[in-house]
Amino acid sequence: MNCKDLIFTIAFLFCVAFPLIAQANTEKKQLGLLRFTLGDTGLDPGLFTPISEEMNKVIDTRSDFQALDVDARLSTREVEALFSLLTDANQEPRVTDGNVALGDGSISERRFRILAAMAAIVVPVVVEFHVEEENADKGPENIRYKVRLNTAFHFLLLEGEKKHVTRVVETLGYDRDRDRALADAAANIMPLFTYELGQLAVGRRGSSVLSIENGEVYIERGGNDGILLGTEFVITVPESLPDGRTVQREQGLIVVTEVTDAVSLGQVRYLDGEPDPGTSVTEVPRFGLDVTPYLLASLPADDLLNFSVYGGLRLTLSKGTMNVRPVVSVEWAVYPFSVFENWFQLRPFLGVEIRAYFGRFEIAALPMVGIEEWFGLSAGAETSFQGFGLRALVELSLLLSRDIKVSLHGGYDYWFDGRQGYLAGGGISLKL
User: Fold this and answer.
1) What class is the 288-431 domain?
2) For the sheet containing 95-96, what is the strand order?
3) 276-295 pLDDT, tens per residue?
4) Which of 58, 128, 166, 185 could form a disulfide with 173 if both were Cys (CB 3.0 to 4.6 A apart)?
5) Are 244 and 207 in contact (CB under 8 A)?
6) Do 196 and 167 touch, CB atoms closer than 8 A?
7) Fold of the CATH domain 206-283
8) What architecture is domain 29-199?
9) pLDDT single digits (tens) 59-69
């Protein structure tokens, strides 16, 4: 096998594997996102502009919808009137001077027609704004401002089973400066909005735990939602900090082991505490490949081999499969250094990975078949095909985080020209 044949083989394997990991790009429906309604709170609308921009991004990346910014503000009563108009076929909008009446208020007919074409609408309304001064009796320099905002999110779901769902969240800000305390309270709205969006089960990557028993988790998404074996979900819960801010804390990681049309069964990789039914889970976005750079030392079992060290890169398909996964790897000699005076030794392998999971720990067997090619680097060294070989590896792995694991390898090489050797080494896997 010459260099051209090797490049062709690698390109062919990539072309075969790529359709297996390509993700479907389905067209999204539009969601109308209105501006924050502030009522008589006296708050500056500009304070909420960056929050609206972040809400747009969250909707685009974590839901089935494409956000469309609508320059309109509606009160709670106007939202109720809008939902009634959009869902009651017997009601006709009452138009006066180019405006559609909504309860005690109105909206332009043009904006009403835009909203009527949406699959869903989100209306954020600040329903309460309160400021407290603490330590005022100790002098002006000791005053601390505590700001509380209550924000209602009106979710109007207008396709299928039509719903008007309202979620009210409370956020706090605490600072010596009143404006900074207010800015903190406003900034803390975003993680709670993200959480509530996931709880509504409109998330493309968000869903919830149905039940958990003996380390197995039933998830409210299945094959009809595009879930495959090996898909991973992270369990997240909101957590309040002492200063009033709210953050999303990762509680655990689940890998899907069985898939039905509507529900998936997952195995817990790690878990901090016991999640309640209804706890939000979010799909970890991945291409579906584990990439593992590694080093292997070859210890000769006969006189035909010398001690040598190989560096390599292994690709494992991790989505659509679970316990048995296809593997491709390429490795090259890195020691002894004298080999580079004449040749570059290259070994591509093809095989399968048979893997079992025990929480953060994994054990895998990797039977593989490979070839060895020596590429000449000096004038007197000719490129030559060295032959075929078989490899058996056992791998012990530890998951350090949801994206990284470390592993130790041990095994045996047998080449058909009679060379044999023991293998020992390790690697780091990146989950892509």
Assistant:
1) mainly beta
2) 95-96, 99-102, 105-108
3) 777 778 888 888 899 999 99
4) 185
5) no
6) yes
7) Thrombin, subunit H (2.40.10)
8) 3-Layer(aba) Sandwich (3.40)
9) 876 677 888 88
